[in-house]
Amino acid sequence: MSTRRETTLSENTLFGMGNPLLDISAVVDKDFLDKFGLKPNDQILAEDKHKALFEEIVKRSKVEYHAGGSTQNSVKIAQWMIQEPHKVATFFGCIGTDNFGEILKKKAEEAHVDAHYYEQNEEPTGTCAACITGDNRSLVANLAAANCYKKEKHLDLDSNWELVKKAKVYYIAGFFLTVSPESILKVAKHASENNKIFCMNLSAPFISQFFKEPLMQVMPYVDILFGNETTEDIAEIAKRTQNLPKENTKRQRMVVFTQGAEDTVATVGEKATMFPVLDIDQNDIVDTNGAGDAFVGGFLSALVLEHPLEECIRAGHYAANVIIRRVGCTFPEKPNFN
């Protein structure tokens, strides 16, 4: 028997909240990217000029649909890594009352995630177009329903808030800052006041560029901040982040940055440590799209078990290594990790 599982996990120990999206991925060409003004490797929010993109991409040959959304991917992978008991991971987000919404509910159930969606009928379920050219992925998110999450209509309801209180570890991707910063703050303050772990992700460059104010409001409550190589000058950001004020002084803030195939950097206090990722043959890489979400999911699965930092990173590297061998954020039936 492995000595890893000293902690017995109960349901709803891990809480995630974010934008539930249905990923629509298809191979496109450079003309398609140029037509819609897309960079080969990027993550953006859809604007009016992208409306036609969603109509066109579903007509391409070999379209694939996968349950997505950054936070939802991460909690799903954490649950997959944990396996038993089911429903250790909870997820909140907003969907539409439509077919895509039903698919997301079904996929969450299959992944044994305890998803509680706020369902509304004014906007359809959000989608994310993954426009694939070679090894590159250009992601265009049409938040739609995901953008309609309402704190007072969902998070504040007693039955839902009880689920929040049951958790010990919280994770919200930066993408949700564009939707409901007040919901993030309520959860972050709860974590801080009860000495629980609150984690956040800088997600994509546009978050720290255009949503700096809500990000800075949440920052004093962040125990673990994740980021990736799209975030400029990692060492500098890690250092600056460490110096930002922190509400719960019982926990030292930790900054964890992945850099694709390069070493993962973790900064605790003044000390930065490098962790090499697992080797992989270039030919085995199928889709790097979900790697960042998978890393966080693996990390969280070890974090809820109260494992030390290097174990959390090892679990993150393992999960990312599995995911990049497959299309979309999908995984085999069971992990092979010990």
UniProtKB/TrEMBL annotation:
<dbReference type="GO" id="GO:0004001">
    <property type="term" value="F:adenosine kinase activity"/>
</dbReference>
<dbReference type="InterPro" id="IPR029056">
    <property type="entry name" value="Ribokinase-like"/>
</dbReference>
<dbReference type="GO" id="GO:0005829">
    <property type="term" value="C:cytosol"/>
</dbReference>
<keyword id="KW-0418">Kinase</keyword>
<feature type="domain" description="Carbohydrate kinase PfkB">
    <location>
        <begin position="32"/>
        <end position="332"/>
    </location>
</feature>
<comment type="pathway">
    <text>Purine metabolism; AMP biosynthesis via salvage pathway; AMP from adenosine: step 1/1.</text>
</comment>
<comment type="similarity">
    <text>Belongs to the carbohydrate kinase PfkB family.</text>
</comment>
<protein>
    <recommendedName>
        <fullName>Adenosine kinase</fullName>
        <ecNumber>2.7.1.20</ecNumber>
    </recommendedName>
</protein>
<keyword id="KW-0539">Nucleus</keyword>
<keyword id="KW-0547">Nucleotide-binding</keyword>
<dbReference type="GO" id="GO:0005634">
    <property type="term" value="C:nucleus"/>
</dbReference>
<keyword id="KW-0660">Purine salvage</keyword>
<dbReference type="InterPro" id="IPR002173">
    <property type="entry name" value="Carboh/pur_kinase_PfkB_CS"/>
</dbReference>
<dbReference type="GO" id="GO:0006169">
    <property type="term" value="P:adenosine salvage"/>
</dbReference>
<dbReference type="GO" id="GO:0006144">
    <property type="term" value="P:purine nucleobase metabolic process"/>
</dbReference>
<keyword id="KW-0808">Transferase</keyword>
<dbReference type="Pfam" id="PF00294">
    <property type="entry name" value="PfkB"/>
</dbReference>
<keyword id="KW-0067">ATP-binding</keyword>
<dbReference type="GO" id="GO:0044209">
    <property type="term" value="P:AMP salvage"/>
</dbReference>
<keyword id="KW-0460">Magnesium</keyword>
<feature type="active site" description="Proton acceptor">
    <location>
        <position position="293"/>
    </location>
</feature>
<dbReference type="InterPro" id="IPR011611">
    <property type="entry name" value="PfkB_dom"/>
</dbReference>
<dbReference type="GO" id="GO:0005524">
    <property type="term" value="F:ATP binding"/>
</dbReference>
<comment type="subunit">
    <text>Monomer.</text>
</comment>
<dbReference type="InterPro" id="IPR001805">
    <property type="entry name" value="Adenokinase"/>
</dbReference>
<comment type="function">
    <text>ATP dependent phosphorylation of adenosine and other related nucleoside analogs to monophosphate derivatives.</text>
</comment>
